[in-house]
Write a structure and sequence with these properties.
alpha/beta, Molybdenum Cofactor Biosythetic Enzyme, Chain A, Molybdopterin biosynthesis moea protein, domain 2, Molybdopterin biosynthesis moeA protein, domain 3, 6-stranded mixed sheet, binds ligand LQZAQKY5, binds molybdate ion, metal ion binding, molybdenum cofactor biosynthesis, magnesium, molybdenum
Length: about 400
């Protein structure tokens, strides 16, 4: 029986723990302009060098005044000048006076409030404030957003677009980052042929490399595609020896027990296998080890198995390799809209679609056939449905954990 056979398989949690132990981040650092830093990992904490905003400034287009001068409605003050964003007013606002001010312009000395222009009546140099004025209204204080000396980003932070805007806003134009690790990508199988050619009997199109390369390139990683390597030990030895000079190798295919499954055998010969086979579905024959300089991720050849093991095992490890302080995404909980078939023995990553239900709670259903070669149901999906190792089928209306693809950078 499947469940008996798989009872000796290593649980995913143990495999992940071993991966985590084995991976140390790259250490080399390079300085890069902000424009090229999106998605990259910072190699040292970033401390704020200035206050943001640098000076008290106006949140509205209107008039700056001393709040004490307009405690009641219908107060009239005299207009004495203007403060524009980039061209401040250099005088002082004294009793009975006000200054025209624009959003973002520096608050002139003496002024303690800004009134938006919709709340005044203007008559030449005389401004009537329709309502009583509160001290500090519409003033953005210096340092209100960020204070000089404050920690902005920890080492290992992955830079996102808003982070780049923030760094630019404090005058930082380049950042120290970990170098991008280099990953070799190998596809193995005599049956594989590149898309665009015509198929002969027994051939299929190579597809794993296209999906895996795109997935890994979402990380700050340089992917070198080795192409299709046939099921010949010599050809594989040569490719794997070369790949062992990279920081990591990802191969797909040839890790099971068939007569032409050489990857695991050659990894054993040229490098070291840390573990092989996990209690997951799909992806059971996943192999992890080392080869020369490289961490080795041997993904199974079935296209869905390759994607699932890349997501669940290779990507978390590679994110650590990039120097990222990686925290696994938190699963959400959803209610199933139909039966999910499962046998006990392996943690199952079914492909599903989740959506909001009528009561605001999440609903999820599987996206059709769940075979490990069925990529169409992967493409219809927007999440994994994660079913615990020892459970059986899930009835309609039960709660399950889901991992939205967005959170996995799919
Ligand atoms: N006797 C047993 N047989 C199998 C077992 C087992 O435990 N005992 N495990 C099965 C499981 S589970 C998986 S998963 C597969 C994995 O096998 P391999 O990693 O050796 O992969 P291959 O045999 O090379 O290929 C499997 C399948 O995927 C297709 N493939 C391979 N590479 C690509 C590619 N780059 N693009 C598209 N498709 C690819 C290949 O043609 C095969 O159809 O083993 C089971 N067998
Ligand atoms: O574990 Mo395999 O990935 O089911 O096809």
């Amino acid at each position: 029986m499947d469940s008996c056979y798989t009872s000796s398989l290593m649980p995913l949690s143990e495999g992940l723990a071993r991966l985590t132990d084995a991976i140390t981040a790259v250490t080399e650092i390079e300085t890069v302009p902000l424009q090229a830093a999106d998605g990259r990992i910072i190699s040292a904490p970033i401390i704020c060098p200035v206050n943001v905003p640098p000076a008290d400034n106006s949140a509205m287009d209107g008039y700056a005044l001393r709040a004490v001068d307009a405690p009641e409605a219908a107060t009239q003050l005299q207009l004495i000048g203007r403060s524009m964003a980039g061209v401040p007013y250099h005088g002082t606002v004294n009793q009975g006076e006000c200054v025209r001010i624009m959003t973002g312009a520096v608050i002139p000395q003496g002024a303690t409030a800004v009134v938006m222009q919709e709340q005044v009546v203007t008559n030449d140099e005389s401004i009537t404030f329709k309502r009583p004025v509160q001290i500090a209204q519409n003033i953005r204080r210096a340092g209100e957003d960020l204070k000089q000396g404050q920690l902005l980003f920890e080492q290992g932070h992955r830079l996102r677009p808003a982070d780049l805007g923030l760094l630019a806003s404090i005058g930082i134009g380049e950042v120290a980052l970990y170098r991008k690790p280099r990953v070799a990508l190998i596809s193995n199988g005599d049956e594989l042929i590149e898309p665009g050619r015509s198929l002969k009997a027994g051939q299929i199109y190579e597809s794993n490399r296209y999906a895996l390369a795109a997935l890994v390139r979402r990380l700050p990683i340089i992917v070198e595609e080795f192409g299709i390597i046939p099921d010949q030990p010599e050809a594989l030895r040569e490719a794997m020896t070369k790949a062992g000079r990279f920081d990591a190798v990802i191969s797909s295919g040839g890790v099971s027990v068939g007569d032409a499954d050489y990857i695991k055998i050659i990894l054993d010969e040229l490098g070291e296998i840390d573990f092989w086979k996990l209690a997951i579905k799909p992806g059971k024959p996943f192999a992890f080890g080392s080869l020369g300089n490289a961490h080795y991720f041997g993904l199974p050849g079935n296209p869905v198995s390759a994607m699932v093991t890349c997501h669940q095992l290779a990507i978390p490890a590679l994110r650590r390799l990039t120097g990222e302080h990686y925290v696994a995404p938190t699963p959400l909980v959803a209610t199933t809209t139909g039966l999910l078939r499962k046998r006990p023995g392996r943690l199952d990553f079914q492909r599903g679609r989740y959506q909001n239900g009528p009561d605001g709670k999440l609903l999820v259903s599987a996206t059709g056939a769940q075979g490990s070669g069925v990529m169409s149901s992967f493409c219809e999906a927007n999440c994994y449905i994660v079913l615990e190792q020892e459970r059986g089928s899930v009835e309609q209306g039960e709660q399950v954990e889901i991992l939205p693809f967005d959170a996995l950078m799919v």
